[in-house]
Amino acid sequence: MAHPADIPAGTLRRTTLAAAVGNTVETYDYAVYGFLATVLAKVFFPASSPTTALLSSFAVFGSAFLARPAGSLVFGPLADRLGRRPALVASLLLMATVSTLIGVLPSTATIGIAAPVLLVLLRFAQGLAAGGEFTTAIIYVAEFAPPHRRGALSSRVQVGSLAGLLIGAVVVLFLNAELTREQMLAWGWRVPFLLALPLGAIGLYLRSRFGETPEFLAARSETSAQDANVNDLWARVLLLVGVSVLHVIGFYMTYTYVQSYLIQLGLSPFTATSVIAFALLIGLFLVIAGGRVSDRKGRPTALLATSLTVLMITYPLFAVLSTAPSLWLVILCTVLLSAGPAFYSGIAPITYVQLIPVRMRGRTVSVSYNIAVAALGGSAVFICQALIELTGDKRSPAYLLLAAAAASAIAAFALTRRATQHAQPSPSPVSLSAKAGS
């Protein structure tokens, strides 16, 4: 049985790629729905007013997030009992299949109310698949990686997430450039979903070539009592959820909602998607940087510093962005707005993994994280839009990101104190005796 430190570099690269590509497919499927929200609103909710249709489209977007905890209850225990790889293969197969079915779904004009109903059901199935995909992929890579590189290598799975968003943005950009508005409404919106099939096939091929992680195999051969006696498991779960707040809200808000936000500010869909694509490109490097910094400076310190930075810059950036300034200022504000969440998302996932013992890692990390995603990720785009509709203030989405940064800063501070306490050696019996006799 190989120890993580003894695994060849080439095997580590291929293993990381296999995990990241599958996560790319998952995020791509989520991304294209978000980028096509304004189009899908007219395809599936044609009788509603533009505002109501867009909110309905965002609500369907959120339905997939509600299914993620249910998916984690399936794929999390599967990862702990049968192994990480079977769970990864099953979740990717389900995701690719469901996305293809969305691509061939008849519109409301064709089959009436059945169309949005089926769309909700398929999005729910996507959520089931996503409930086991991201966390298991992170665990898979972390359990292969040597201790001093776990942050850097695990961040590559998050890079896969941004790559999925970037691919989705590029595909939508190309379609908006080549097709008329009428063609996009008629059939163009289907193309991105149908592309999930070949992407999924590539991911399945890569994942089928690798075995189980060394840590999982070692833990399976040990007695279960060793990891079961975790007195502070609930404290660990609360810390995990706290850390995830900025990760989840920041990721979906800056890379999904902001595209629709820019369109509402008057940018064309092509221009708005181009801005997000550029921000995603920058974000790829920031995610990698976050993982590497966490290996050198420690996870809690890096998380706390990033959360505080997001707290300081979010409102001023939204204040400038909401005035719909020049295109260059729009690009600059969007990149800076997404920079903090991107850097943070390179640190948070490995933090989740290392908080939970190996034998209960699959189900605990998956369920905890996906409950946070269901409550926060799916609602983020809806809440941002609802805040604008209720207040009439285009700066109001900033409040959600500020709240997320504050919550995660508190969790990161608690992690910092926890790390400091665990780093302090307990008093020796001799010193205790000396104190007692003095």
UniProtKB/TrEMBL annotation:
Give residue ranges for domain Major facilitator superfamily (MFS) profile.
15-421
How is this protein named in the record? MFS transporter
Q: This protein's superkingdom?
A: Bacteria
Query: Which residues are listed as membrane-spanning?
Result: 53-75, 87-118, 124-145, 157-175, 187-206, 233-255, 261-289, 301-321, 327-355, 367-388, 400-416
* Localization annotation: Cell membrane
Report keywords, A-Z: Cell membrane, Membrane, Symport, Transmembrane, Transmembrane helix, Transport
**In what way does this protein cross or attach to the membrane?**
Multi-pass membrane protein
* PANTHER family per record: ALPHA-KETOGLUTARATE PERMEASE (PTHR43528)
